[in-house]
User: What shape does this take?
Amino acid sequence: MKRLLSGLTTVVVMVGIVTACAEQDSSGLSDDEVARYSRQLTEALNNRDNAAMETILYSVFRRTTGLTPDQENPPGISETAWHIILCRNQKALGRIITEEQFEAMRDRFRFGAMIALSVSDYAENTEKVIQCGEKSSDPYSIHMKRAVDWVNGWKTASGEQLYKEALEYRDKKKEWKFYELLENYLLHEAEDKVYKPALYDRVQRAFQENDTSYGLIYLGSLADDDYLPAQLEIARRFRLGDGFEQSNAKAVYWLQRAQSLENRQEIQDRLDLLLAKLLKSEHRSIETWIKYNISPTR
Assistant: This one.
């Protein structure tokens, strides 16, 4: 996870988070302001207008912390909605944002918790806020605790669960720019659990990003570990000379291993076409690889 945090630590700020439990001061907002902000937020949520949502929450942050429009943003504050999770004025949020709205912003809480818990300097203070939340019934504390529980749940979640959630965020990442970071964190956790579909996903992304050397090395490793999609892909690449030196013999070797894993007519059809083209020397090479348990991955 550390490699994914590069460049992100400057985005995180704990604005008085240590005193969040102790202060619980007045929100400093009139009833009219609360009604107006809540109405605007509801409209933004209904319209799935992320830009408007972020503007509203940032306005609340400025209003409740005494910042004026001509003042610079506090160091590290990003003009995105999740930062409000970490600001100290929980009471203002509890008044403005309803339970339903908090639920709609669940992923922003998850992102805030993910960042805060991943940066060691902030993790201890974040836990203090959560301990406070366990004794409170306000929506802010409840949802912050749920978000932290979600992040901590990665430790016991299966690679399959993590990968499934990562793909769900991938499908939504055009809606909000930080969905991609949630996706990447979950993929990384799934990879750490050696979940083969997640590892293969990383290989495919490496090729898309022109990181060919990484892609080829780990493609070969997954193929040798009897992961069928990787075996079919490495066979295709050897057959076409895509990233590797063209070799019908190596393509046949991997297709034969794939066929032994899962007997499919389509695999057999590809094998038959290539076998008809093989030279005697290529047949001998395949026999040697099998006899001495050599996997041709280069």
Notes: Residues 1-27, 69-89 have pLDDT under 50 and may be disordered. The chain has two domains: 2-155, 194-291.
